[in-house]
Design a protein that fits this description.
9 strands; about 300 residues; about 45% helix; binds S-adenosylmethionine; alpha/beta; Rossmann fold; 12 helices
């Protein structure tokens, strides 16, 4: 379908159902067929592929997914859109429309129930801006049975995901994404291809989910605590940031020794550390914590 046709159909559906879009739900509907095709190509679908779509809106992307994938499960929060979607996909039994909140639903169960007959699974979605990071983190942290994720997100978040250590965009989100997946920039998306036009530009990013995390750590929760502590106060040195956020009353001298033991200069800023350096540091802290527990038990 051409851009004008998608835009016309979107407006017609909204008018026919008397729907006023809610900015609070990130409702900006895509009208550009070239961008839709880029997302479809990036997802590398086929009849053996199952797709979880988050936020189908009035179904522009869902329709393309339905053409290219074996099964589609589309989770929409806005109850007003659910009957519109059900009507659109009435004669497509491989498309499952689910009314629910992607931040709360048991997504593993949705995948199992709706996409169980497919051999590889992806998420393909134009995510609502207000919930991009929490939804992405859920998809990655919960270790859902997914091979890849192709998402359209705010350009600034995409830049954070792709950032290199030492740059202003590099942060806890970058480290977390890289821990679970390889990230790849697909395309930039200008604001004028949406109804209504958002104030920001977007980008499409592809995640290849790793079978194993990028680095091995003894205690994953501690690893992410170290990462959050290091980025919590970006202007501080690693020593000061960790002493303030993580050391639970330990003197700075000890924290300094831990960082040195991990082979890192304590005067560096947390934002310059690579994934491997964060992992090494978390493992030193884990060893120290175990030593303390062992000594307390003697
Ligand atoms: C950016 S629009 C994308 C719409 C459509 N997929 C498209 O590309 O045109 C985001 C969609 O996510 C829905 N949404 C917002 N929060 C949600 C949530 N927590 N769970 C599921 N859907 C949500 C909105 O109602 C909206 O339909």
């Amino acid at each position: 379908m051409a851009e004008q046709a998608i835009a016309g159909r979107t407006r017609e559906l909204l008018a026919r159902h008397g729907l006023v879009l809610k900015k609070s739900l990130g409702q900006h509907f895509l009208t550009d067929p070239h961008i839709l095709n880029k997302m479809i190509d990036a997802a590398e679908l086929g009849s053996d592929a199952g797709v979880l779509e988050i936020g189908p809106g009035v179904g522009a992307l869902t329709e393309r997914l339905a053409e290219e994938a074996g099964s589609v499960a589309a989770v929409e929060l806005d109850a007003r859109l659910v009957p519109v979607l059900k009507e659109l996909f009435l004669s497509s039994p491989h498309v499952h429309i689910i009314h629910g909140d992607a931040m709360k639903l048991d997504l593993g169960q949705v995948i199992h129930t709706c996409l169980g007959d497919t051999s590889r699974r992806s998420v393909v979605a134009n995510l609502p801006y207000y919930a991009t990071s929490p939804i992405l983190m859920r998809l990655l942290e919960e270790r859902l049975p997914l091979d890849r994720i192709v998402v359209m997100i705010q350009k600034e978040v995409a830049q954070r995901l792709m950032a290199r250590p030492g740059t202003k965009d590099y942060g806890a989100l970058t480290v977390a994404a890289r821990y679970y997946a390889e990230t790849e920039w697909v395309t930039r998306v200008p604001g004028h291809v949406f109804i209504p036009r958002p104030q920001v530009d977007s980008a499409v990013i592809r995640f290849h989910i790793r079978k194993q995390p990028a680095v091995e750590v003894a205690d994953e929760r501690l690893f992410f605590r170290v990462v959050r502590a290091a980025f919590g106060q970006r202007r501080k040195t690693l020593l000061n940031a960790l002493a303030a956020n993580l050391s639970e009353g330990k003197r700075k001298k000890e924290v300094n020794e831990w960082i040195l033991e991990a082979g890192i200069d304590p005067k560096r800023r947390g934002e310059t550390l690579t994934l491997e350096e964060f992992a090494g540091l978390a493992d030193v802290l884990d060893r120290k914590a175990r030593d303390l527990i062992r000594m307390a038990g003697k």
